[in-house]
Amino acid sequence: MTFTKLLKFSKRLKSIILTEKGTGDVTRIIGQVVTGVGFLRAGIIFKEGTNIHGLTTAVTVWCCSAVGCLAGAGHIKETFIGLYDSTILKTINNVTFIINYVTLTVPVILTFAGR
Q: At residue 53, what are phi and psi to the nearest 5 degrees?
């Protein structure tokens, strides 16, 4: 296992060095990130009967890796735009959760007329 990780690290390091010299291509690294994250997302999503869990987590992992790829490729302005967008979406998600929680937890009192 350790040898495999060392081999993968050396390949990535070689690709980074070639990219810095101008003879490599950043998209090779990003392609490997996309492949790896695809496998991770597939392991996060669970289906139990008609219920599906983990979609939000899988999308979050995907967005984080996309922002990381932007940063790694040197697109700083786009990285900050991605971070800003993900912050806004997380805030909207939290507000929606609070609204749903308040709506679902309203106590209901039923009174029945005696006979």
A: -120, 150
What's the token pair of residue 110?
């039923």
**46 three-state secondary structure:** strand
* Per-residue pLDDT in tens (0 to 9) along the chain, 115 residues: 566 667 667 766 776 676 676 666 777 777 888 888 888 878 888 888 888 878 877 887 888 888 888 887 778 888 888 888 778 877 877 777 777 776 665 566 666 666 5
What does DSSP say about strands 46-48 and 51-53: parallel, antiparallel, or unpaired?
antiparallel
| Helix H or strand E segment including 56 | helix 55-72
Which contiguous run of DSSP H or E holds residue 93?
helix 76-104
Q: Are 61 and 40 in contact (CB under 8 A)?
A: yes
For 73, residues 6+ apart whose C-beta sits below 8 A from its C-beta are 26, 30
Task: Tell me how far the alpha carbon of residue 74 is from its chain's centroid.
Answer: 20
What distance in Å separates the CA atoms of residue 37 and residue 47, rounded to the nearest whole number? 19
